[in-house]
Amino acid sequence: MPHATALGNLRMHVGEGVTGWVAEHKSVVALSSNATRDARFKLFQGLVEDTYEALLSVPLASAGDLVGVITFITGSRTSTPTTKSAPWCSSANSLGRHRQVLLAGGNARLLEQTLEMRRELETRKLVERAKGILQRKRQLTEEEAYLRLREQSRRLRRP
Questions:
Q1: What number is the average pLDDT over the span 125-148?
Q2: Phi, psi values for residue 81, rounded to 5°
Q3: Cβ contact 21:74 at 8 Å
Q4: Mean pLDDT (whole number) for 8-16
């Protein structure tokens, strides 16, 4: 890999460069020649990709959510990336057929949401348990126990 030292160190925002534009608009971009002259192209000094002639950039989505963008590049004017040309199209379509690639990002988000919901549920369980203890030991109503917990939480500045 000619640019291994740059891997993981380059940063682009959604909307920046061709790939960022594809992410923002969730639309395919096929540049058959002079890809680096496209107004959306972002140049990174010293990267081999900046010398390529043509590119095809495709948004990857799962359940309507953008998971990522894949970009195919070539330096050959004879191997023009269009949405209809055989090598490019078959590569893009094979990714579409292998839904595991597309679902990986969506699954990671779903896992994070599930873990967050689990943390919230555990917190609610603790609050309910504490309310029950206060109700039994202090002869309080559920609302009174809740208000005392809330007051102590604010006083101690802890959730």
A1: 93
A2: -80, 110
A3: no
A4: 75
- Nearest partner of 20 among 59, 50, 75, judged by Cα: 59
How far apart CA 158 and CA 80 sit, in angstroms, is 60
Which residue is it, tokens 């972002």?
42
pLDDT at res. 73: 74
Match 């959604």 to its residue by tokens. Answer: 14
pTM: 0.47
Question: Looking up tokens 């500045």, which residue turns up?
Answer: 157
Q: Which distant-in-sequence residues (6+ apart) come within 8 Å of 109 by Cβ? A: 65
The whole-angstrom separation of Cα 140 and Cα 124 is 19
Sign of CA dihedral 14, 7, 65, 113: negative
Calculate Rg over the CA atoms of the chain.
26
Q: Which residues pair with 157 in a beta bridge?
A: none
- Please give the structure tokens belonging to residue 147: 């208000």
How remote is the C-alpha of 41 from its chain's centroid? 21
Q: Output the CA torsion sign for 22, 27, 32, 34.
A: negative
Per-residue pLDDT reduced to its tens digit, 31-88: 877 777 777 877 776 665 556 677 788 887 766 778 778 877 776 544 444 444 545 5
Q: Which two tokens stand for residue 67?
A: 């998971």
